[in-house]
Structures are given as C-alpha cells and as structure tokens.
Amino acid sequence: MHLPIEPTHKVKLMKKITKLKICDWSLLPVTVLMLASSIQQEGWWLGMGVVWAHIVLGLLFFLLIGWHLQLHFQWKNWFVRLKQQKSHVTKWLTAFGALTLLTAIAATIQVFITWHHTSIGGWHGKFGFIFIAIAIGHAVKRIKFYKK
After folding, report:
1. pTM, whole model, 2 decimals?
2. How confident is the model over 34-47, as pLDDT tens digits?
3. What angle in degrees, to the nearest 10, is found between the helix axes of 16-43 and 119-141?
4. Cβ–Cβ < 8 Å for 31, 61
5. Torsion from C-alpha of 102, 99, 108, 47, nearest 10 degrees
C-alpha cells in the first residue's frame, strides 16, 4: 500500500554551499586546535593523555577535510580531480596532507608499541606543520567566502 507523503514530512536538503560553509567554519577552530596540539606535542612530552587528545583531534580534522573534499569533488574520481587542479597550492596541500596522514598512522602504531616519541613522529610533525601552514594560506586566500 502506498502512502502519500505530505509536504510537512518532506526532508529538507541543505544546499551544497550551506554544507560547505558549515564544514569550512568547523575546520577553522579545529585547525587552530590542531596547530596548538601539534606545538604541544613537539615542545613537551606530557604523557599519553595528550597523545590521545592529539589523535582524536587529528581524526576529527581529517574527517572534516574528507568532507570538504567530498563537497568539492564528490567521491568519484577525486584523486584524479585533485591531480588535475591548476593550483599548485592545492597540489602541495594534497601532497603534504597525504604525507601527514600516512606518517600519522605509522607514528600512532609506533607510539603504542614503544610508548615514546619516535623519528616517524618527528617526520609526522614536520609534514603536519607544513600542511597546516599551507591550509591556513588556503583559507586566507578564500577569506571572502567566510565573510559572506
């Protein structure tokens, strides 16, 4: 039996631009927190609680980045679409984002085996700082989007 859907029961779909604004505005404070957490990781070894906080924050950060990429490129062929970008900044952002993510996985595994900051964690930190610096530049270049 088919029940008609009344207009009050229709699901309102957000426009892509609204989702992008939510995503990008969410990325701003998470980027700042990620930078602060990263500096804390580089400056002081304060125990596993701080490491766990950095890992959880990093997961949130990369989930938001994934959402941002999905909103721009959808899921189909986004590696190809990123590669075809004309902007060298976007290409560097992609490269350092990938290096940061890969070394994050390796560093996480290694820190839970050794319980110490390791050389892979050092590389992860350096790649991450470059990634965040480029990401901040990426956001600043699009400041008009945030002002609207």
Report:
1. 0.81
2. 999 988 887 776 67
3. 140
4. yes
5. -170
